[in-house]
Amino acid sequence: MNKRIITPQQDRHMRRRTRLVAAVLALVCFGGLLVRLYRLQIVDPDGYAARAADQQLRDTRLPAARGEIYAADGTVLATSETCWTIRASPRELADELVQPAAQALSEILDIDYEQTLAKFSQRSSNDCLLSRRVDRQKADAVRSWCEGNGAAGIQIRQDTKRVYPEGQFLGGVLGFTDVDNQGLWGLELQYDDVLTGQDGRVLTAKNAWGYDMPTHYSTLVEAVPGSSLTLTIDANIQHWLESALSAAVQEHKVAARAVGIVMEVNTGAVLAMSSQPDYDPNTPRILIDETVRAQVNALSGEERSAALQTAQQTQWRNKAISDLYEPGSVFKLITASAALDTGVCTRDSRFTCAGKISVAGTTFRCANGHIHGLETFAQGLAVSCNPCFIQIGARLGKENFCRYFEAFGLRAATGIDLPGEIKRSEYYTVEKMGPVELASCSFGQSSKVSYLQMLTAVCAVVNGGRLMQPYVVDTITAPDGTLQQKTRPTMVRQVISEATSATMRELMEGVVGVGTGKNAAVPGYRVGGKSGTSQKLDSENERARIASFVAVAPIDDPKIAVLVCLDEPHSWTTSGGALSAPVCAEALAKVLPYLGIEPQYTEEEQKKLFTTVPDVTGWRTAAAELKLREYTLAAGVCGTGERVTSQYPLAGTTVRRDSVIVLDTTGSYDPTAEE
What we know:
- By secondary structure, the protein is an alpha+beta fold.
- It folds into 5 domains: 9-45; 59-183 and 194-230, Penicillin-binding protein 2a (Domain 2) (Alpha-Beta Complex), CATH 3.90.1310; 279-312, no CATH class; 322-594, 3-Layer(aba) Sandwich (Beta-lactamase), CATH 3.40.710; 604-674, Trypsin Inhibitor V, Chain A (2-Layer Sandwich).
- It has 23 helices and 28 strands.
- Strands 2, 3, 4, 5, 8, 18 and 19 form a 7-stranded mixed sheet that branches.
């Protein structure tokens, strides 16, 4: 065999190549390590720190209580209650307890057994959710079972849930939250960042097996509650409005819900706002309309899900701010104000109503076929004459009409502090408005505004001409009681002069005194208003109407305004003066004295409403009762005696008719005792 001889030159070459290979290998290895170190220390320095912390610490969130919502009178409208979340760490649960724990906890928590068993069977899992918003009774039952059976790994964590103590009350305004206490609707959404507090934390050290170490290895960071809201809405006024509105909905079979708003005329503060029927914010996903609920339940699959979502969205809408409507004759207040303010008309200007009027080939009729003949501006407003206001609109002209329409805030959103307000109304611009459009718009048809826009505009009509921005939150208060924000009334603009406003107040009083608003009269108070019965032009039903009425009191010194609208009533009439005016009167009769506005009765009202208590002491009981009936009074008899020994109130006292006079028949009657 020939032996290969390596020359010195070849040997040097091999050594050089070996060194090169070694250098390349070293560069690759150390280069990779350097790149890795760069990524760990420079690019992602927190990654492994977080993984290490996750292995060494258990971070438990302590949910902060959401701020409360109060009515102006102090009634709690929304608050947070303590509840518990049940979670589990299956890896900490003993093997022999997997099945018994799944069985017991599924029964206590009313959850699916198979799903619970599947969760517990994942032996490497360190965390899984069993149930949320558990009440104290169930949480105590879980704790008792775990302690009695030595079950480790079941975590009972304190949590909070949103509750609304008043139930089905003010739902469309308050809104509601989701399961994580995040605001989804209404004030809960609008002020979510204010109401949401700062969660606390409990950091607990874990050992090498992932189990919690003793409590002295824990760190607590307290939760900070959210701030609270106090509304301008008064719970008593809201209850009265809802009660009257709900009764009207049932009595007149209102198909498309009803709207009611009570507002302070001079500030824009909303004292009550309701869309009836309304939902319970504690259970917002339950459909309140039984007919709609039955229709949805009759469906299945995706079709049912879509129908349910649509029905819920409709239910949650705050109709007062989110929907547009044809205001009808209530809008005549705006046309009248503009005409007086520009000087094209006075309260004594004269017009003729022949029952109908033709404009550019289109015939408009007066409501209910009335023929008013010769009438003044004031009379035309009182009887709500359409031909009269078509003539007023023609005198005003489309440029002035559109200018005042915008000035009264009827084009854009009011800016109220509630979510879901519609951004713009439907109206004609000067360029698109012809004689026919001007005619129909002049008496409240062909334009659509929101209910809140309309009431805000009416407040400007009567308060001296100042358009105010409406609002519902009065103050925001920190958890320690510190006042964080106080809402100040904001004037948007001066729309009409004070003189025009004063004239309009007098004309509106005439509507209630001798016109279409007689049903809005409240004994002891001077009330002004305007009725409206508008056709829903975009409805498939040609007979669909909206019956509305706006009332202001006391009209000589306005304090509050009430707007009531019944959308598609099915009753003996659709007239706003007949159906909606009584609702306004009922609300005013309770709200005005509640606000400290004392009644001032006329002599005629005094005779009609009050009577003097007669003296029936010594009378036989049956005769005394008959005597009281003559005075339109009722008897409340105490005792079983034959004669009245004393009475209350005493004889000669002035009381309201139908009052109850207490007749005491106990003991014996001694006529000399009164001498």
